[in-house]
Design brief:
153 residues; alpha+beta; flat; 5 strands; two-stranded antiparallel ribbon
């Protein structure tokens, strides 16, 4: 598998786009991010490296990272999008708490197998997928139960 930098450079070349110093800073900051993050969090990291890079440049470069397959993005609710590095990562799905927005990565072979079975039954060929399960995490459930207990007193 090609390194992410090469994939990005190739994508730019194939689409008639230039590799600019700003894009290189944003790419490196993106690849240095851990886990899941918002565009604003990436922007703050980019500003630490180069204060002259604007937010619009970060957003446009994020779009290129998504289109090139290096990044993945999904909505965690209320219109908030989070990003993660997808290039070179194993496929995983997500549990997302609708209260605290905690994200838990899950890998479940039974879910993957069932998806393939459903697709085959429908004559459908899956090229890629994303599974996001929304709910309330154990910590938020416990907090809600504790608050209910306080109301009973």
């Amino acid at each position: 598998m090609k390194p992410a930098h090469e994939v990005f450079f190739d994508y730019l070349n194939e689409n008639g786009l230039n590799m600019t110093p700003q894009r290189l800073v944003i790419l490196q900051a993106f690849l240095d991010m851990d886990g899941h993050f918002t565009s604003d969090e990436l922007y703050k990291k980019v500003k630490q490296h180069d204060p002259a890079i604007g937010q619009a440049t970060v957003y446009r470069t994020l779009k290129i990272l998504l289109d090139s397959g290096i990044a993945d993005c999904f909505d965690i609710g209320d219109g908030v999008s989070i990003f993660e590095v997808s290039h070179g990562q194993e496929h995983h799905d997500h549990l997302i708490c609708v209260r605290c927005r905690k994200k838990i990565e899950i890998v479940d072979e039974e879910i993957e197998k069932k998806q393939e079975e459903v697709a085959t039954r429908e004559g459908f060929t899956i090229t890629h997928h994303r599974l996001l399960l929304y709910g309330i995490c154990p910590e938020c459930q416990a907090k809600a139960e504790a608050e209910l207990g306080e109301d009973d007193e």
